[in-house]
Amino acid sequence: MNRLSAFNSPLLLGFDHFEQLLDRVAKSANDGYPPYNIERIAADGLRITLAVAGFTREDLEISNEDNQLIVRGRQHEDEKRVFVHRGIAARQFQRSFVLAEGIEIAGASLDNGLLHIDLLRPQPETVSRLINITTGPPAADSRLSVTAGPKKG
Question: Could you give all domains of the chain from N- to C-terminal order, each with its CATH number?
Answer without folding.
Answer: 32-123 (2.60.40.790)
